[in-house]
Amino acid sequence: MPQAASIALAVHGGAGTIARTEMTPAREKAYRDGLEDALRRGHAVLRSGGSALEAVETATKALEDCPHFNAGRGSVFNADGQHEMDAAIMSGADLRAGAVASVHNVKNPIALARRVMEKSPHVLISGMGAFEFAHREKVALEDDQYFFDQFRYDQWQRTRGTDVYQLDHSDDDRKFGTVGAVARDAAGHLAAATSTGGMTNKRWMRIGDSPVIGAGTYANDASCAVSCTGHGESFLRAVAAFDVHALMAYKGLSLEEAVREVVHVRLPPLNGDGGLIAVDREGRIVLDFNCSGMYRGHVDADGTVHSAIFRA
Amino acid sequence: MPQAASIALAVHGGAGTIARTEMTPAREKAYRDGLEDALRRGHAVLRSGGSALEAVETATKALEDCPHFNAGRGSVFNADGQHEMDAAIMSGADLRAGAVASVHNVKNPIALARRVMEKSPHVLISGMGAFEFAHREKVALEDDQYFFDQFRYDQWQRTRGTDVYQLDHSDDDRKFGTVGAVARDAAGHLAAATSTGGMTNKRWMRIGDSPVIGAGTYANDASCAVSCTGHGESFLRAVAAFDVHALMAYKGLSLEEAVREVVHVRLPPLNGDGGLIAVDREGRIVLDFNCSGMYRGHVDADGTVHSAIFRA
Predict the structure, then answer these.
(1) Which residues contact A94 (CB under 8 A, 6 or more apart)?
(2) Which of A5, A159, B27, B103 has its CA 20 to 30 A from that of A251?
(3) What pLDDT digit, counting tens, does each position of A158-207 carry?
(4) How far apart are alpha carbons B229 and B273 in whole angstroms?
(5) Does the distance separating the beta carbons of A203 and B127 come in below 8 Å?
(6) B124 to chain A: which residues are within 8 Å by CB?
(7) Which residue in B180, B231, B266, B162 sits closest to B17, CA to CA?
C-alpha cells in the first residue's frame, strides 16, 4: 500500500529503435549516468519538500544540459541547419500549463515553458515570438555553438537538401528523441514536463507532440501525469497523454492498464512507435514502450535510483 | 430514430459576449447570411455524396472568405499589425489530421491544413515554415490588403503598444472569434474543421486551441466530431474537443451529455468562456455555449437551414 505522502519521480530520454549491437558498455553508461543524474537532482527537490512542478523542471533541465539527449544542448539540426526546440510543462493541481514550440537559442526550453505558464496569459507560444518572450523574461540564452554537436551535424549532412526527415530514432543514431519527467510530491500534486530537439532535417517549423498539452504532456491530480516520446505525429493524432488520463478517469482503468491501452492498442495502428512515462496520484510509476528500447529511469520507494534502456 | 444514411452539418462563427443591444437587424442578417451560405455550400457537398471532410472544408472556406468572421479574410491584427492565422482539419474515419499555426497571407488556412494532412508527413506546421509549404503546394495566397479591414485596424489601434491583448469576444466588437464546421456524411464518416485569426494584439506567435488536435478540433468515427470556439488557453488546458469524445467512448455519455459536461462543468473553472459544435455517428447535432451568444447554424434532417446567435 503506497503511503499518502510518498514522493515519486520518473524520467525518460527518448524511445525508438535502439540496436543492442551498437550499444557499447561505455555508451550505455553515459546514457544511464545522464538519466540517474537527472533523477537525483529531481528527487532532491521532492525530498526537501519541493513541488512536483519544481522536480520535473529540475530533472528535465538536467537532461537538456546533457549532450547525449536530443533536447536543449544536443538537439538535432533542422532542414535549415538550425536547432528548433519544443517543450511543455503542466501542473496537475490546477491544470495550468505552459509550452514553447520551434524556439531557438534558449538554453533550457523547459524553463521557458514554465515562464509561459507563470508570466504570460498564454499556454503555447512559438518561433521568434517565443524567443522574444525568452529575451524579455531574461532566461538563459546560448549562441549556436553551444548547441553544436559533431554527430548531430554529420547526421544532418546525410539528409540535407533532401525531402528526407529523420526521427531521432534511427538505427545509426547514438542519441534518441525527447526527454521528460513526471513526479508526485509529498502534498499529492502531480506534474509533467517534456522537451525535445525534434527531428533531423525537419521542415516548415513542424511541431510535434511534445509541446502540445494532451498529446505529449499532461498532468491532472485527479488521475496521472504523463510525458511521451516517439513518433510525434501519431501521438498528436492519438491525443496520447490525455487519453491515459481519460481511460483512468472515465473508464476506471488503473495507471498500468491505461498506459498499456494507449501504448500497445491505440498508438500502433497510427504508426505510433514510442513510449511514455506516467505516475498516478498514489505515486505508482509506469514506464512502457512499444519499440525496442526507451531510455528511462525512476526512483523507488526507498530512494534507490534505477535506469534502463532495453526490456528487462 | 436517425437514418443510417443521414447526413448532418453544423457550423459556428465564434462565441462570446455578444450584446443584444448592439445587434441591429441588418447586422444580424449579415452574420446569419454568412452562416447559412456556408451551410448551403457544405450541405451541397454531402447531398451529392461528398465526404464529411470535403463538406467541412467547403463550409469553413466560405466562413473564411466572409469578412464578418475572424478567420481568413477579416482576421484580427496581432501586436505587429499582421494577420496570423491558425486552422486544423481532422478525418474521423482514419484519425488523419492536418493543421497550421501562425500562418500569414494564405487565403484559406483550412485548405492549407488539409494539404498538410494529405501532402506532408506532419500534422502541425507553423509560421514562415507553413508559408513556405503553402507556396510549394501552390495554395492561393493573398497580399496584406486582402486581409485588411478598417474595423479590425481600429480595434488594433486601441490596444497597440500596450500589453493588452483582446480576445475577439469583447463587447464593442462586431465580429467574433473562430469559425468551424462538423459533418457526418452518407457513409457514416465524421470530420471537423476549425479556423481563426486569433486575438487582437496577440504577441509571441501565440497558438490557441484551434490548430491543436484534441483541444479545438477533433473527429473520430467511433464517437463524434467537434469544433470549439472561445478562450483558447482554457480549451488547450481542458483538451476540450477530445474530452467530448472520451466522455462518450469511455463513460457512455450521449453527445448532448458529453458536450454539456465539457462546456458547463469542465471549462468554466478554467475561465473557459466559449462553446462548441458537435455531431455524433448517428448524425445528431449539438451546439452549446456558456456565454451570451454563439454564431451558429445547422441543416436539419429535411434539409432546412437554421441559424442563430443568442439563446432561443
Answers:
(1) none
(2) A5
(3) 766 665 554 444 444 434 579 999 999 999 999 999 999 876 666 788 99
(4) 9
(5) no
(6) 206-208, 212, 236
(7) B231
How do residues B109-127 score in pLDDT, each as one tens digit? Answer: 999 999 999 999 999 999 8
Strand pairing category for B217-220 and B190-196: unpaired
The three cell numbers of residue A119 are 508570466
- Which of A274, A269, A134, A165 has its CA nearest to residue A215? A274
- Chain length of chain B: 312
Q: How far apart are CA A146 and CA B175, in angstroms?
A: 47
Nearest to A57 by CA among A109, A120, A1: A109
Report d(CA B131, CA B210) in Å as an integer: 18
Report residues of chain B scoring pLDDT below 70.
1-5, 77-81, 151-152, 155-156, 159-176, 199-202
User: Closest chain A residue to B231 measured between Cα atoms?
Assistant: A122
DSSP, collapsed to helix, strand or coil, labels residue A76 as coil
B233 vs A205: CB contact, 8 Å cut-off? no
Is residue A261 within 8 Å of A247, Cβ to Cβ?
yes
CA–CA separation, A215 vs A199, rounded Å?
17
Tell me whether residues B126 and A126 touch, CB distance under 8 A.
Answer: yes
Grid cell listed for B173: 466588437
Residues in A closer than 8 angstroms to B214, CB to CB, are 212, 214-215, 236, 239, 242
**Distances A105 to A121, A139, B274 between C-alpha atoms, Å:** 23, 10, 36
CA A179, CA A294: separation in Å to the nearest integer?
Answer: 10
Residue A125 in contact with partner chain B when CB distance is under 8 A: yes
Contact (Cβ atoms closer than 8 angstroms) between residue A248 and residue A255: yes
Contacts of A212 in chain B (CB under 8 A): 124, 212-215
Are the C-beta atoms of A122 and B196 separated by less than 8 Å? Answer: no
Domain extent for A9: 4-310
DSSP per-residue letters across B94-118: TTEEEEEEEE-SBS-HHHHHHHHHH
- CB neighbourhood size of B288 (10 A): 17
ipTM for this model = 0.91
User: Residue B246: which of A101, A232, A250 has the nearest Cβ?
Assistant: A250
The predicted model scores a pTM of: 0.92
Contact B226, B244 (CB under 8 A): yes
Strands B96-103 and B124-126: parallel
State the pLDDT confidence band at A220, using cuts at 50, 70 and 90: very high
Yes or no, beta carbons of B121 and A233 under 8 Å apart? yes
CB contact under 8 A, A214 and B130: no
Beta bridge partners of residue A251, listed in sequence order: none
Angle between helices B25-47 and B52-65 (to 10 degrees): 150
- Asked if the C-beta of A139 comes within 8 angstroms of chain B's C-beta atoms, the answer is no
The CATH number of residue A14's host domain is: 3.60.20.30
What size, in residues, is chain A?
312
- Number of domains forming the structure of chain A: 1
CA distance B99 to B72: 14
> What pLDDT does residue B164 have?
57
Interface test with B, best of A122, A136, A199 (most B CBs within 10 A): A122
